[in-house]
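Anyone opening a protein record will find just a pair of labelled lines. The record below illustrates this layout.
***
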Amino acid sequence: MVSLPRRVLAVYFFLTGTLFALWGATLAATDARLGLGPGRLGTVLLAMSLAAIATVPLAGRAAARWGSCRTVRTAAPAAAVAMAGPALAWDHLSLLAAAVVLGAMSGAMNVVLGLRAVETERATGRPLMGRMQGLWTLGSVAGAGAVTIAFHLGAGARAVLVAGGLLLAALYIAVAGPGGGRASAVAPPPVTAGTGRGVRLVVLGVIGASAFVVEGAAADWAGVHAATVLGASPAAASLAYTVFCVAMTGVRFAGDALRARLGAARTVRAAGATAIGGLTLVLASPALGTPAALIGWAVAGAGVAMVWPVVASAAGDEGGLPRVSAIGYGGGLAGPALIGGLAEAATLPVALLLPAALAVLIALAAPPVLRPGRSGLPGVEAAHAAV
C-alpha cells in the first residue's frame, strides 16, 4: 500500500514550487542588498547547483534504505528551514555557504520527491506527473505572487525568506501527519534494446537540460534582468518570474490534450518555437520596455511547459528515465550559473542569448528522437506525460 497518499503528494509538490519561488523571486533583492553583481551571484548559483547534484546519489541511497516516503518527509522541512540561510548572509562568502546548504537540501528533496511520485504512479497504474508538475508551477506562481505582495507592503527580502521558510517547514510537517515507511514494490520500467538507445537517452537528457536552463533563467535571472537592465522596481522585477510561472502552469494543466492532438514530436517543436518567440521579446526589451520583457517571459514559460513531461515520457519508454533526469537536472542546475559567468564577461542581455539558443535546440533536436504514440506507463495513453 502506498504510504504517502496522492493528495499529500500533490500538496508537497505545490509547497515545493512555493519554496523555490521564494528563492527566485527574492534573488534580485538579495543581490542588491549584498552588492554582488553578475559574477559573484553566478558563483553562488554554481555552488548551489554543484551541492544539489552531489546530493543526488546520497538521496537515492537514503530512499533505498529508509524508503522514499520517510526520506522526503525529512528532506522537505529541512530544505524549507535552509531557506533562512541566505536571509542571514552578510557578504558574498556567507551567502555562498548558505547556498551550498540550501542546494544540498533542495537537491535531496527534489530527487526523492520525484522518486516518490514515480513509485506512486507505477503502483496505481495511473498518470500523475503531468498534474504534479502543474501543481509545482502553481505553487511557484503562489510563492512569487506572495513575494510581490510582501514587497508592495514594505517587507524586506530577509523577512520574506525567514518567515516563508519556517511557514513552509511547518506546513510540510502538518500535511504529512504521523507515519512514514517504505514505498510499496512496483514493477521496473521497460527497457528497450538497440544500439541507438544510449544516444537517444543522451539527446533526450540534453533536451531536458535545455528546457531547465530556460526555466532557471526565468527563476534566477528574469528579476535581475528587469531590475538592473530595465530599471524596474523590486516589485515589478519579481513579477517577471510570476508571469513565467502563470503561463507555464496553464499550459501544463492543458498540455495532455494538446499532446494528444499534435503528438509528441509536433508538441515539442511547437514548444521550442514558442519559447524562441518569447525569449526574442525579452532580448528586445531594452528597446521595447519592461512590458515587453514580461510578455516575453510569459510566452517563454508557455513554450517550455510541456518539454520536460514529453521528454520524460519518452525516457520512461526507453527504461532510461534516471539517466535522462540526471543529465537534465544537472544541466539545468548549472545553466543559471553559466548565464552569470557570461553576464560577467559581457552583459546580462548577451548572456540571455544562451537560453534562446537552447530553445532553438529544443525545436530542432527533439522531434527526431521522440516516438509518437508511446507512454511511460503500462496501459496509459500517450497523451499523458510520465516524469
Summary: DSSP finds 15 helices and no strands in the chain. Confidence is low (pLDDT under 50) at residues 180-189, 373-387. The chain has one domain: 6-369. Residues 92-124 form the longest helix (33 residues).
